[in-house]
Amino acid sequence: MTTLFDALKVGRLTLRNRVVMAPMTRARADDSGRPLPIAATYYAQRASAGLIISEGIFPEPMGKGYVHTPGLADAVHVEAWKAVTAAVHVAGGEIVAQLMHAGRISHPSLLPGNATPVAPSAVRAEGTVYTDSGMLPHPVPVALTEGGIAAVIQGYAAAARRAIEAGFDGVEFHAASGYLPMQFLSSGTNLRTDRYGGSATNRVRFTVEALQAIAAAIGADRLGIKISPEMAFNDITDHDPMQTCTTLVDQIAPLGLAYLHVAPAARQSEYHHELRKRFPGTYIAGAGFDAGSAAAIVASGGADAVAFGQLFIANPDLPQRLREGTPLAAADPSTFYAGGEKGYTDYPVATAA
Ligand SMILES: Cc1cc2nc3c(=O)[nH]c(=O)nc-3n(C[C@H](O)[C@H](O)[C@H](O)COP(=O)(O)O)c2cc1C
After folding, report:
1. Which of 97, 213, 322, 338 is the most buried (most CB within 10 A)?
2. pLDDT value at residue 39
3. Which domains does the chain have, with CATH numbers?
4. What's the pLDDT score for residue 353?
5. pTM exceeds 0.70
6. In terms of Cα–Cα distance, which of 240, 257, 296, 307 is closest to 17?
């Protein structure tokens, strides 16, 4: 019977266990998008994960969605990330960079020259965005031209190359949580009438082409993708999310990707069942798992590995705690994006508790 503590080959990577740290924005970078030295401490503390997926990182300045989020948009970012990846490697871990383009979930105050955010279509997201001037409404985004789409895709490929230069072991393409790729995937935000909009096949094209470009840049065997079916976060709606997701996975199945990471917001077992059987690479299930449900899905073959979010914030030694049945600490949401060490690098390991 497969357990969470068995090794796993994931494309080019070999994980020492199947307990994955989910990508989590922690808003502790400096204003220019450089991760600070405490990020190296935070990730190294969690290096006993089979794989760490980094917080969302903007691939180009127009992809930034929140204050104090980090980038991989230039050489300065690359140098800063080298300290983080080296600390994880010294601690025996593996870390991939999650490339996150926020698309319409941004604000001119976060973008170069106060530019208007870009999106598949000029559809404004309900809600507000946290800026240095407080909470402000999302503006109506500018619809990308086909040339603009090609440039964004090349921006991802360039950032993926930088990720490898910075010492990351691979890249995760963030197509979840209502950011740019999911804005293309979803019928409520993609009103295009060209080959990037309309049918599910057209709506998945942006993601497929981006994955092809990143794979050409760094190799498909160290590239993964995350999706979050039925996640309404960031005002995303789709008239048939199951059809969109199955179409997407059918299209990416031949690409030879390292993994597919699925964190559904509803109908979890239905999505895992439908999508796992369509994807030939490693399947990582995420969202809402605890010790029992994670062990069960891996034992049954329903997933190869499990991603843990909040539990990895509060339990830096999560694999050991799961293995030994040690009680798990709960994360404090008030410190998720608060900056500083509190709620970031000060959660103790079990033996020191
Ligand atoms: C503080 C916080 C920040 C997050 N930031 C990201 C992110 O940058 N990229 C992403 O794909 N998911 C992000 N997520 C979602 C997590 O990756 C994960 O899917 C979610 O927390 C559900 O898993 P859990 O129930 O184990 O926490 C974030 C979650 C939390 C709690």
Report:
1. 97
2. 98
3. 8-352 (3.20.20.70)
4. 47
5. yes
6. 307
